[in-house]
Design a protein that fits this description.
eight-stranded parallel beta barrel, 39% helix, alpha/beta, 13 helices, globular, 15% strand
């Protein structure tokens, strides 16, 4: 267990991302039944190792991920002691409204689905969908989140999104205690390194999501040709192939190296991995335990693509 920044929340180094549990075959290429989703949540909570679950109002039609988590929790009599659950506020799925009023409604919907009176961690989700000025305007999403915390409906506040520079803007408001970004601190992309290091130094909790880059570092670039679910330069795929070959030579699955790259970072409090079955829970725990020769890390570092190919290239690259 580790502490999530200065929040006082004790969390596991692995966090289960629940977007796949919503059953979105258009995004992931496979469906997940309600029973399989409930079984997955139970496998996580029964693992004795993973105590941290991340979800969102916007995962699946009608908040299906939260509904399925709620089913599992009700079957257990509520969120187990010692477990931490985070959710996120999202725009109205029909109108796109992301006002302060919508933020409050989003949390109300989440609490009803989850069967909880409050949440330990509440994120502003993908704020790149609105302007920073709209988000921080009087009565807007950021001010409303602060009010929800003051009312005791959320213990702690985080910002979860993509663009590194935008995440930094939100942290600089002083409202947020946790930052989550995805696909930007992996074997193939180091865009979030400075953001994470600076946040950690300030006592802000750091959550690194999608260490597999949307699947390329598990399935291989032949099967998953997209990085972070978007089209990427062929040189990203070529680097993934070289990394897989280096791992194979060392007798290590590429997925194990990709996962442990995040787990070993001293400034990452927890690594968020999307899981969609009890078997994947067990497999992920095994990947996290595998021994990796120290020499392999040096070899992989030499294969990192040019910063100009990252999702958020440094200025001047």
């Amino acid at each position: 267990m580790t502490s999530l920044g200065s929040t006082g929340l004790a969390i596991s180094p692995l966090c289960v991302g629940t977007s796949p549990l919503a059953s979105m075959p258009g995004l992931y290429g496979y469906a997940v039944s309600e029973q399989r989703a409930v079984d997955t949540v139970n496998a996580v909570l029964d693992s004795g190792t993973i105590t941290f679950i991340d979800t969102s109002n916007g995962y699946g039609a009608g908040g299906s991920a939260e509904k399925r988590i709620g089913l599992a929790l009700r079957g257990r009599g509520g969120l187990p002691r010692g477990a931490v659950l985070a959710t996120k506020v999202d725009p109205d799925p029909h109108t796109g409204d992301f006002s302060g009023a919508r933020v409050r409604k989003s949390l109300e919907e989440s609490l009803e689905r989850l069967g909880l009176p409050s949440v330990q961690l509440l994120h502003l989700h993908d704020p790149e969908r609105i302007s920073f000025s709209d988000a921080t305007a009087p009565g807007g999403p950021v001010e409303t989140l602060a009010a929800l915390k003051a009312e005791g409906l959320a213990e702690h506040l985080g910002v979860a999104g993509g663009p590194v520079a935008l995440m930094q803007q939100y942290l600089d408001t002083g409202v947020f205690e946790v930052v989550l970004t995805h696909n930007r601190y992996t074997l193939l992309d180091r865009s979030a390194l400075s953001l994470f290091q600076a946040a950690h130094a300030r006592g802000i909790g750091v959550l690194n999501a999608a260490p597999y880059g949307g699947g390329m570092l598990v399935k291989g670039p032949e099967t998953q040709q997209k990085y972070a679910y978007g089209e990427r330069d062929d040189r990203i795929a070529a680097a993934a192939v070289k990394m897989r070959n280096a791992c194979a030579h060392a007798g290590v699955p590429l997925a194990a190296a990709a996962l442990q790259f995040s787990l070993k970072a001293p400034f990452v409090d927890s690594t968020v991995v999307g899981l969609s079955s009890p078997a994947r829970v067990a497999e992920t725990l095994e990947l996290a335990r595998l021994k990796i020769p120290p020499s392999l890390w040096d070899e992989l570092e030499d294969l990192v693509p040019s910063p100009s190919l990252w999702l958020d290239p440094p200025k001047g690259s």
